[in-house]
């Protein structure tokens, strides 16, 4: 009995676990079993290890009865088919289980009743509105149902307090009726007085809870209907605005057609069909609105006259791009560039798998609760939160789509080159969409070399150049005419519910043929649901890609996730402008899937934006063309930390690398092999060794300063 572990109290509705003794038979008597109460079901196992594969029995509390035998024993039965005779290690533990079971039973009964008439609380919308915002409405309804369940939990707790309080008063009254003298009588009177004070306080709380429940139940449906009406009205207004924008564009075209017909009366017969064609085409064209939080511009399909006027230019552009792509694909990548006459050298076969990620459980809150507000690099993290590559290797992963820079190097037009550079800046985030693991913090002086000259024509080198604050330098050079370098310092803060990562530093790209020099910075990364829920990553902020040679500029905006937004998630938009501010291309897409570009044929100022009073710019563009698309993940990526094909090869052992290379880190290698306990011990040893070396350097620097000051004095 002393081995039984008292379960930790948890809030109503959460999972409740603990050891309880269960009656088995007359030979074995009561046996210790692990019980789990979750979602209205009480299940038990012989050991905690069985939870993943073998359940010994389950009772649905919605149809079960709960009775108390004595101080430690209680019985749970569902009418004869299943009956559990249970015994807790003490009376306090038994009362905890009884309270948790009663709360779970009340909640299960409510859920069973709601499943029959769940559609009554939320009136169904019209098909048009439901189609546009069905997922958002379902989320709102789910949130409202959760709040309603919490209110019902409060009502159940209210009833339980009243029930147990009345029982306590009756017991005390019985004790008070006994005629006891001396110290025992004084103790009983003292307990009675305290119980009376508790009863008065409890009654006040019960009355307050009852008033709150009455108000909540009275206004709950009214609030739900008001919220639903507001959402439907918002959708209708957005659709009306979209229709007005289409009509405005149609009227502009009709006006231009009429003006042309008046200017050339000989061509009246020809002007009529042209106007009709423009009208028909406008009816079929799709209207693309800007982001809700970035109302700088709107794109609409260009007038057909621009297609005819620029057909020769566009065909020339298409042929040029196609020729570049063809020459790029046909280039003998594995050939020695200095000796083209030599035969092809067989490429090294890279690995396509790493050991599967082990399934280790960890109490996250016990580690993170003392780290709120601290910088991430100063928090001692176990490898359970890591992925088996270092930050230097993650920086090298920016070259996943190096072919965008290869194509940019072949462009004759700097504005077209800017489109490819901007797409490359966006593509660096596509590898992060499912990657919630934290890379290993590099040690001071740690390096990483990625040599892909034979396969892809480039070679990359990274080094950790500072420990506090952590900073890394990255340099990559390609035989195809470009050089990339960056210096990155990562600032991060743990905010309780989410983790903010703010990259500091500038990325430089230089093209040899045109001598164009581009720079840009990275946007902020946010990891949500750190404590509770499924982890997910969002990128938000703005990027200005600047060509310092020509003055061209591309402004990219990463839209943050918004619960109320109707836009596609992870959206990115941008405009490529020359040094005079004239727009030439519009970029659109998502940072996790693809990017497209459209050539701007005409721009004009639109109406005012009602929220900020600013005017939107309307860009008339040609049909969008795909600029970049994310490569599919390898088979089984979900068990390999969602690594891409390139990421799987980054930590592959290679001969001839430097002793400081990230591939030689023992803790990182142990984690990749699935030996996480050994990896944690090795990681702690390396970090402590680095801290000791840092303190020694600080002491030496302090002593040198002291000696220099004494000499000056």
From TrEMBL:
Membrane topology of the entry: Peripheral membrane protein
PROSITE patterns given in the database record: OSBP (PS01013), PH_DOMAIN (PS50003)
Keyword Membrane assigned: yes
Alphabetical keyword list: Coiled coil, Lipid transport, Lipid-binding, Membrane, Phosphoprotein, Transport
Compositionally biased residues, Low complexity: 703-713
InterPro entries linked to this entry: OSBP_sf (IPR037239), Oxysterol-bd (IPR000648), Oxysterol-bd_CS (IPR018494), PH-like_dom_sf (IPR011993), PH_domain (IPR001849)
Any one GO molecular function term: sterol binding
Comp. bias regions, Basic and acidic residues: 661-702
Coiled-coil residue spans: 220-254
GO cellular component: cytosol; perinuclear endoplasmic reticulum; plasma membrane
Gene3D superfamilies for the chain: 2.40.160.120, Pleckstrin-homology domain (PH domain)/Phosphotyrosine-binding domain (PTB)
A biological-process GO annotation: lipid transport
Family to which the UniProt record says this protein belongs: Belongs to the OSBP family.
Protein name: Oxysterol-binding protein
């Amino acid at each position: 009995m002393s081995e039984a572990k008292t379960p930790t109290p948890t809030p109503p509705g959460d999972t409740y676990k603990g050891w309880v003794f269960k009656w088995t038979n007359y030979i074995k008597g009561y046996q210790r079993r692990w019980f789990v109460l979750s979602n209205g079901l009480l299940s038990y196992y012989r050991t905690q290890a069985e939870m993943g594969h073998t359940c010994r029995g389950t009772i649905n509390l919605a149809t079960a009865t709960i009775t108390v035998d004595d101080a430690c024993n209680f019985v749970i039965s569902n009418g004869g088919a299943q009956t559990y005779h249970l015994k807790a290690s003490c009376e306090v533990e038994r009362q905890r289980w009884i309270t948790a079971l009663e709360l779970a039973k009340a909640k299960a009964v409510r859920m069973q009743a709601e499943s029959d008439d769940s559609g009554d609380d939320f009136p169904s919308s019209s098909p048009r509105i439901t189609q546009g915002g069905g997922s958002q409405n379902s989320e709102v309804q789910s949130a409202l149902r959760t709040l309603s369940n919490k209110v019902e939990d409060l009502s159940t707790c209210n009833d339980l307090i009243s029930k147990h309080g009345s029982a306590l008063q009756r017991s005390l009254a019985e004790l008070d009726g006994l005629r006891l003298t001396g110290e025992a009588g004084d103790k009983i009177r003292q307990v009675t007085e305290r119980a009376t004070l508790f009863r008065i306080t409890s009654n006040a709380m019960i009355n307050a809870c009852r008033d709150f429940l009455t108000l909540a139940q009275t206004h709950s449906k009214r609030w739900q209907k008001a919220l639903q009406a507001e959402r439907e009205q918002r959708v209708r207004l957005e659709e009306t605005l979209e229709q007005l924008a289409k009509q405005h564009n149609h009227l502009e075209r009709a006006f231009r057609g009429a003006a042309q017909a008046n200017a050339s009366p000989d061509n009246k017969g020809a002007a009529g069909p042209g106007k009709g064609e423009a009208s028909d085409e406008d009816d079929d064209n799709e209207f693309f609105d800007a982001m809700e939080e970035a109302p700088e511009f709107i794109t609409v399909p260009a007038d057909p006259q621009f297609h005819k006027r620029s057909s020769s230019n566009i065909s020339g552009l298409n042929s040029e791009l196609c020729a570049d792509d063809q020459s790029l694909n046909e280039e003998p990548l594995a050939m020695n560039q200095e000796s083209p006459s030599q035969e092809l050298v067989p490429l090294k076969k890279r690995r396509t798998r790493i050991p599967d990620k082990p399934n280790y459980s960890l109490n996250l809150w016990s580690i993170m609760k003392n780290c709120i507000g601290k910088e991430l690099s100063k928090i001692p993290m176990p490898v359970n939160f890591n992925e088996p590559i270092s930050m230097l290797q993650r920086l090298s992963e920016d070259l996943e789509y190096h072919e965008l820079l290869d194509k940019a190097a072949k462009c004759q037009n700097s504005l077209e080159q800017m489109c490819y550079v901007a797409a490359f800046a966006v593509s660096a985030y596509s590898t992060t969409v499912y990657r919630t693991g934290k890379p290993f913090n590099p040690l001071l002086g740690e390096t990483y070399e990625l040599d892909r000259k034979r396969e892809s024509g480039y070679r990359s080198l990274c080094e950790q150049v500072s420990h506090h604050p952590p900073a890394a330098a990255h340099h990559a050079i390609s035989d195809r005419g470009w050089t990339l370098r960056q210096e990155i310092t990562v600032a991060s803060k743990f905010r309780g519910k989410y983790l903010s990562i703010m990259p500091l530093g500038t990325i430089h790209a230089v093209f040899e043929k045109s001598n164009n020099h581009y720079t840009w910075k990275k946007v902020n990364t946010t990891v949500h649901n750190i404590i509770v829920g499924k982890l997910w990553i969002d990128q938000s902020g703005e990027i200005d890609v600047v060509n310092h040679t020509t003055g061209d500029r591309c402004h990219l905006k990463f839209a943050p996730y918004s619960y109320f937004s109707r836009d596609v998630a992870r959206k990115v938009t941008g405009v490529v402008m020359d040094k005079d501010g004239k727009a030439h291309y519009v970029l659109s897409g998502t940072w996790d899937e693809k990017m497209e570009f459209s050539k701007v044929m005409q721009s004009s100022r639109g109406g005012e934006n009602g929220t900020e009073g600013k005017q939107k710019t309307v860009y008339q563009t040609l049909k969008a063309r795909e600029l970049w698309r994310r490569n599919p993940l390898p088979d089984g990526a979900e068990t390999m930390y969602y690594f891409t094909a390139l990421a799987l090869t980054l930590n592959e052992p290679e001969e001839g690398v430097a002793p400081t290379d990230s591939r030689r880190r023992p803790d990182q290698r142990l984690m990749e092999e699935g030996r996480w306990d050994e990896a944690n011990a090795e990681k702690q040893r390396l970090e402590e060794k680095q801290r000791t070396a840092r303190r020694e350097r600080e002491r030496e620097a302090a002593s040198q300063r002291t000696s220099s000051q004494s000499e000056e004095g």
